[in-house]
Write a structure and sequence with these properties.
The chain is of the alpha+beta class. It has one domain: Nuclear Transport Factor 2, Chain: A. It is built from 3 helices and 4 strands; from the N terminus they run αααββββ. It has a 4-stranded antiparallel sheet with strand order 1-2-3-4, covered by helices on one side.
Amino acid sequence: MNIRKIKLALSVGLMNQEAGNAVNKIERMMDNFREDVGDLIGRRELGKSNLNRSHVQQTYALQFERCTLKVDLVSNLATNTQVVNTFSFS
């Protein structure tokens, strides 16, 4: 599995993303690497915390057959936008 290649593709894809659900977009991007990571097994929310009245930080784990992708994102409740803060593989 070429993690560097996957990280680069996710970074570029996230920089070019339009408004919408970031986790769904990451799932679709990871579909391009199905041979490396395997099929998506599931998604779960690991944590959620309020940063202020209009911003929430959430952490998700996307479980694939061969790895787990942890995604931290910040959601703006007023504008319904999401920004990925960090992501990492394990």
